[in-house]
Amino acid sequence: MRFAVTGGAGFIGSAVIRRLIGQTGHEVLNIDCLTYAGNLDSLAGVSRNIRYHFSPTDIRDLPALRRAVEDFRPDIIMHLAAETHVDRSIDGPAAFIETNVVGTANLLEVARAWWEGLEGAAKARFRFHHISTDEVFGSLGPTGAFTEESHYAPNSPYSASKAGSDHLVRAWRETFGLPTVVSNCSNNYGPCQFPEKLIPLVILNALEGKPLPVYGSGLQIRDWLHVDDHAEALIAIATRGIIGESYNVGGNAERTNIDVVRTICRLLDELQPGSPHGPHEKLIAHVTDRPGHDARYAIDASKIARELGWQPQENFESGLRKTVEWYLQNRDWWERVRSGLYRGERLGLIDAD
Question: Out of 27, 32, 134, 232, which one is annotated catalytic?
Answer without folding.
Answer: 134
